[in-house]
Fold this protein.
Amino acid sequence: MHPDVQEILISEDRIAAKVKELGERISEDYRGKDVLMVGILKGAVVFMADLIRHVNVPLAIDFMAVSSYGKSSESSGVVQILKDLDQSIEGRHVIVVEDIVDSGLTLRYMLDNLSTRKPASLKICTLLDKPSRRKADVTPDYNGFVIPDRFVVGYGLDYAENYRNLRDIAVLRPEVYSKG
Ligand code: 5GP
């Protein structure tokens, strides 16, 4: 275990089983359709890389990068698009892939923005959901795990750009935050 980790919340094995299950559900639900998966950088990268290998309908990928104004620990709902999609989504079946839905404010903004571009359908797939923190009206269509209100890292999720490479989803020791 990484020395900065206090507790593993979701193990690598449980993540792998869940990602496979989500990929299989998406494959069934989108049978006969082409999918465009839109990953939200950077947190969703690891999840999306594993997820797409369990989806067996025709699939393209694209990415968006957004930054939320306000305090770093809490999203304000005012979102700036740092990197937009490379392709049009008009008439396409879009699945937005997120690492975690917390307040939901970032995702609400993204969905409102993407729906103006006239996709054929627009759904959300998130690995983690913290519904206790929800401020915006967002319900993921596909969700891996509901987790309590704790700050987690690993499997793509960072603290100050570190720990994205951890294989499990974990909670850090409190000392790590006080190191600044
Ligand atoms: P929301 O707009 O839903 O509050 O913010 C979602 C974003 O906040 C996520 O995509 C993620 O980048 C970040 N976030 C929310 N909770 C956590 C957490 O527990 N750990 C990490 N590393 N990031 C989080």
